[in-house]
Structure formats: structure tokens, C-alpha cells
Design brief:
The structure is a single chain. This protein is of the alpha+beta class and 231 residues long. 38% of the residues lie in helices and 22% in strands. The chain contains eight helices and eight strands, in the order αααααααββββββββα. The strands form two sheets. It has a five-stranded mixed sheet with strand order 2-8-7-4-5, with no helix packed on it. A three-stranded antiparallel sheet has the order 1-3-6, with helices on one face. The longest helix is centred in the middle third of the chain and has 20 residues, at 100-119.
């Protein structure tokens, strides 16, 4: 080969009709090294052992005698030998290994989430807690016109009585005064979790009005600590 090294490579590329990207793909040589070789910017190329392997793959792709191409290149340019600080150039087609620290971090996060879900499963996905203390029975009769519904529920959940929201106190208790109509009065007491599950309790109070039935104001006065007992 009497031609200069650079001309040999360029002629072969033009003869094959290859682009730089296609040549890099077929030869498995990093594209930026192919560009450096074509430009003649050899100072930025890797050391001899790696460079020899690249020239061999390029020569095979371009149908050139690899050893002759290598010898022509060595005659024209000084070649760096490999040193202890040299690193093998990255292959753009290869998968990079995942960093061990990342694996540990991701694994730890998954384990923590899993443990959290195990211990909080019932709180997140179970049925919400609800106890109706008054009336304790499903069906009762009374002659008191104003009745106070009482019970306990979980503070973080929503509570409603006949679709009307009722506040839950800090200690988990709740109460609501209701004015009874004569006959059967039905109350649906529901508590609902954030994720949608709910518990429902039904109570029926039969109000039997009599001549001696206390009025609403009388009932409130009787429950008040300042009420004066009748003689």
C-alpha cells in the first residue's frame, strides 16, 4: 500500500458507500473514534492494544488487509503504549451495569414499602371500626322526643348519620342529638375509610308519644348540669 493511511481509509469507506454511523455499527468501533481516524486526529485515540483491535475490525468491514493497514499506520504515526491509567473505551451498544449502591437503595425502599403495607394493611384496606353505644340494641322504644345517638369510631375516618357528616372527637367518640318523629325512626350510621371501605350500622327507635312525654326543652334541661330538679 503506497497511499497514506488516511487516504486508504477514506477511499475504502467511499468504495463501500458507508456512513460514519453505519461503519461504526458494522465494525463495533465507537463512532467518535471512527470520526477521529477519518479526521486524522490521532492524538485523541486510545493506546496501542485497543487501537490495534479497532483497526482490525475496521479493516475487516472495509475488506482491507488488517495487518498491512496497521503497519502503514505505525510507520506514519507514533503509537502510545498502554499505561496503568488507561481504561477500555465504552461500547455504545453495550448495557452498562447497574451501580451496587443504586441496587441497594432501590431494594431497601421496596422492602420498607412492603413492611409498611404488612403492618398497615388492616388500617389501610380493612373495614373501619364502628361501635354504636346508644342505642346499643337494633330496635328500641322510647317516650323521649329528643334522643342522643352515641358511639365510637376511628378519628381519621369520616362518619355520617343518615348521610349527614358528624364530627369525631379526639378520643374517638361521637354523639348527635336527633328529634324523633312519632312512630319508627331509622338511622343509618356509617364510617368510611379514605380508600373507600365502609362500615354501616342501622338503628330503629320507636317514639311513643304520651301525655307525660318530655318536650325537647325539658329533655335538654334534664341533661344539663344546671337543671333544677322538680319537687
Amino acid at each position: 500500500m503506497d497511499k497514506p493511511f488516511k487516504e486508504i481509509i477514506i477511499d475504502a469507506i467511499e468504495h463501500k458507500g458507508l456512513s460514519i454511523g453505519k461503519l461504526a455499527e458494522l465494525s463495533r468501533v465507537p463512532e467518535h473514534y471512527v470520526e477521529l481516524i477519518i479526521r486524522g486526529d490521532y492524538e485523541k485515540l486510545p493506546s496501542s492494544p485497543y487501537l490495534h483491535g479497532y483497526f482490525t475490525r475496521l479493516s475487516e468491514t472495509l475488506n482491507l488487509e488488517s495487518e498491512l493497514v496497521w503497519q502503514v499506520f505505525k510507520k506514519e504515526f507514533d503509537i502510545r503504549t498502554s499505561g496503568e491509567k488507561d481504561l477500555l473505551p465504552k461500547n455504545r451498544f453495550a448495557f452498562e451495569p447497574i451501580n451496587n449502591t443504586k441496587i441497594f437503595t432501590i431494594s431497601s425502599f421496596v422492602v420498607l414499602v412492603f413492611v409498611y403495607l404488612i403492618f398497615r394493611f388492616n388500617a389501610l384496606f380493612g373495614k373501619p371500626y364502628l361501635v354504636v353505644l346508644d342505642p346499643a340494641e337494633s330496635n328500641i322504644s322510647t317516650n323521649i322526643e329528643t334522643y342522643v345517638l352515641r358511639g365510637n369510631a376511628e378519628l381519621e375516618n369520616k362518619l355520617s348519620i343518615n348521610n349527614e357528616l358528624v364530627d369525631i372527637k379526639e378520643d374517638g367518640s361521637f354523639e348527635k342529638s336527633v328529634l324523633l318523629q312519632e312512630g319508627v325512626n331509622t338511622f343509618e350510621i356509617k364510617t368510611k375509610k379514605f380508600l373507600g371501605r365502609e362500615t354501616s350500622v342501622s338503628r330503629q327507635i320507636i317514639f311513643e308519644k304520651t301525655d307525660s312525654s318530655p318536650s325537647s326543652s325539658e329533655t335538654e334541661n334534664e341533661n344539663s348540669p344546671d337543671a333544677i330538679p322538680s319537687e
